[in-house]
Design the sequence.
């Protein structure tokens, strides 16, 4: 019997690219407004180049997107701005974080998750740094593990193993739902969990071992979960 549902967040419950673009633009505009000299010294493209360079030079923080952004801000500002660098970094990140947690759900995603929370233990497992409490769905999940909090990004098994242990569930009693074939589906399969691939664009399955279910509309998720559960109960 299925006891635990784990959900990826970005590109599973909402599209993340427009969110990050808006958040980064808001962060840069705040910096330009308060430190006009930066407008002619650092662009958003250059900021991203700095961030990628730091990720390559410091793999120990590359999985933690919050720490990576804070480190990038600190290094960029130290080279171009005088004043309270830690305070400026903190405020700039707050501007980013506020916008990062304003999401537009995929159709029926929030409603379906809310309904499922009545029957299953739900855990959020994300490589990103979304804050489910700021977003307004924290009460639907018993726990939220991120790459930053666990110390490893998916497809490393740490997040899945932590969720199973905390929920007191065996791998065959859990289903992971996510959009990424490797980071979500294959990674969860490797720890023994059932999987549902959120395939928004009806792509062909790209790997050898298929998921237990596939959805391209969130309202189909409860039915697919029930089918997996029924199949499990027959054994």
Sequence:
């Amino acid at each position: 019997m299925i006891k635990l549902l784990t959900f990826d967040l970005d590109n599973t419950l909402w599209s993340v690219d427009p969110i990050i673009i808006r958040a980064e633009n808001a962060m840069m505009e705040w910096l330009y407004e308060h430190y006009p000299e930066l407008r002619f010294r650092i662009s958003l493209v250059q900021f991203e180049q700095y961030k990628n360079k730091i990720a390559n030079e410091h793999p120990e923080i590359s999985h933690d997107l919050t720490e990576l952004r804070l480190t990038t801000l600190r290094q960029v500002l130290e080279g171009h701005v005088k004043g309270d660098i830690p305070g400026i970094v903190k405020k700039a990140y707050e501007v980013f974080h506020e916008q990062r947690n304003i999401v537009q759900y995929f159709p029926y995603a929030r409603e379906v998750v809310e309904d499922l929370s009545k029957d299953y233990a739900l855990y959020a497992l994300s490589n990103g740094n979304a804050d489910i409490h700021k977003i307004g769905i924290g009460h639907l999940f018993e726990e939220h593990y991120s790459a930053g909090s666990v110390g490893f990004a998916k497809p490393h098994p740490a997040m899945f193993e932590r969720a199973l242990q905390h929920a007191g569930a065996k791998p065959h009693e859990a289903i992971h739902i996510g959009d990424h074939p490797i980071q979500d589906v294959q990674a969860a399969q490797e720890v023994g969990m059932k999987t549902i691939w959120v395939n928004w664009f009806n792509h062909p399955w790209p790997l050898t071992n298929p998921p237990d279910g596939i959805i391209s509309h969130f309202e189909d998720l409860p039915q697919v979960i029930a089918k997996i559960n029924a199949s499990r109960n027959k054994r």
Q: What stands out?
A: Strands lie at 4-7, 121-126, 143-146, 174-178, 194-198, 213-215.
